[in-house]
Structures are given as structure tokens and as C-alpha cells.
Amino acid sequence: METEEHLESLDREGRSLAEVAEKAGVDAAVPTCPGWRVRDLLRHTGAVHRWATGFVAEGHTSPRPIGDGPDLDGTELLDWFREGHRALVGTLSAAPADTVCWTFLPAPSPVAFWARRQAHETAVHRVDAELAAGGAPRPPAADFAVDGIDELLLGFHAREKSRVRTGRPAVLRVRATDTDAVWTVRLSDRPPVSERGATADAACEIAGPPAGLYLALWNRLPLPEVTGDASLAALWREKSSVV
């Protein structure tokens, strides 16, 4: 996906998150984030939006803490969230292509990185808000879902922070059905090493339509079809959680 497409998704997902959160009410429990209420979801996502905006707008070239959301509630909290989301979209849309700032995953440019990362951050938390409201989550478009799976496997879980590790080497396959998207995930006592394509025989395969697979790999929905060694799929569910 192109940066402009990520920005469109970020804009749409943030507005949807606020709308659903308002309908659910800030005191509604978020089942996919144990211990959280919708107010916590808004404070977290709004703080992340402002954190990301700061890197791009101010050109910070080293990590900075995210910080906590404000001690606001109700309408004031929703207004604060919407203000930060608009600022993020505006900042990224206006940022020069040669903007230099800190990032934490490989990307063609810092602006491309932050547009993609925040689009998926916001989409996943929009789903959290929908589940808190008691409704079925709106499935993301197939191309967006495939892009998010790619970021998750080749980006997030390639980092030292990943807890998806196993005492014996094993290979997990992830397949987005109805597309040609497939990934090979090599598991060991180190962070997973993922590659696009079926590059090795796999002991376990997790497969499903892109939207459901995306949300399942983010631990927002149950895993779809699992074949082979189910313990590897269980390992993913247990160790892969990212708030």
C-alpha cells in the first residue's frame, strides 16, 4: 500500500473509533484489552497519536516516552482524542517526503513508516471499541489486512521484544486465503524470522480470509483454520500479544 492509502485509512479509522467509543460509552469494558474501559482505550490511542505526531512535526531522532493520556472523561476525553487524531493526520499529510525522524520498523521513509504504523494501530483499536460496544467488528479491506499482517510478522515480531519463542526450532505458515499472500515464520529461542512466500516446510499453518486472519493474529478474534501442530498456533496466541 502507498502512504496516501495509509493516511486515508488512518483518517477513516480514527473517526470511526471515536464514533463507536461515543456510542459504547467511556465506562464500557474492552474485552480484548483485559482491565480496560473505553476511556482507557481513548487515552492510550490518543497518547500514541500525539507521540507519533511529535516525531514527525518536531523531527526527534531518538526514542521518547509515549506518556499517559489526560485525566479527562466523557465528552472532554472524546474531544481530546479527536483533536489529536486530526493533528496526526494533518501533520503526516503535510510532512515533506524528506522528513527525518525516529522510527522503529523498516520503511521507505519516516513518513511512510508513521502513516502505516498509525493506520494499523488505529484500526486494531477501532475493533476494540466495536467489541466494547457489543457489535461485530467491521472487517478491514483485504489489501489493508494483508499489509497489516506483513507489518506484524516482518516488523513487530522481528524485534527483540517479541516473546514468540520456542525451545525447539519450528516453522509456522501463515496464509491469507483468496489472495496469494503467504508467509513462512521460523520459530526458535530467538525472535521469529519471517519471510514472504512458502519458503520451507511448515509444521503448522494458520489460514483464513485476510480480514479475519489479520484480527486473529492481533489477538482480536479467534484463530481461523489451524492445521498441523496446534501447539505452535497456541504459542502464538499466548505470546504474541501487543496492546
Describe what is shown at a glance.
It is built from seven helices and five strands. With 243 residues, it is an alpha+beta fold.
Biggest sheet architecture: 5 strands, mixed
Which structural class should the secondary elements be placed in? Answer: alpha+beta
Number of domains: 2
Strand order of the largest sheet: 3-2-1-4-5
What number is the mean pLDDT? 96
Beta-strand residue fraction: 5-15%
CATH fold-level topology of the largest domain: Four Helix Bundle (Hemerythrin (Met), subunit A)
Q: CATH top level of the largest domain? A: Mainly Alpha
Q: pLDDT below 50 for ≥5 consecutive residues: which ranges?
A: none
Report the radius of gyration as a whole number of Å.
18 Å
Secondary structure: number of strands: 5
Q: Which overall shape is indicated by the principal axes computed on the Cα atoms?
A: globular
**Count of runs of 4 or more consecutive helical residues:** 7
Give, in order, the helices and strands. Answer: HHHHHEEEEHEH
- The CATH superfamily label of the largest domain reads dinb family like domain
Distance between the termini: 23 Å
**Percent helix range:** 40-55%
Oligomer: single chain
CATH-level-2 architecture of the largest domain: Up-down Bundle
Key structural traits:
single chain, 243 residues, alpha+beta, Four Helix Bundle (Hemerythrin (Met), subunit A), Nonspecific Lipid-transfer Protein, Chain A, 2 domains, 7 helices, 11% strand
Describe the model.
This protein has helices spanning 3-24, 38-58, 74-94, 110-132, 142-154, 210-217, 230-239; strands at residues 170-176, 182-187, 193-196, 204-208, 225-228. It is α+β, with helices and mostly antiparallel strands and 243 residues long. It has 2 domains: 3-132, Four Helix Bundle (Hemerythrin (Met), subunit A), CATH 1.20.120; 161-239, Nonspecific Lipid-transfer Protein, Chain A, CATH 3.30.1050. The protein has a 5-stranded mixed sheet. A hairpin with a 5-residue loop joins strand 1 (170-176) and strand 2 (182-187). The radius of gyration is 18 Å and the shape is globular. The mean pLDDT is 96.
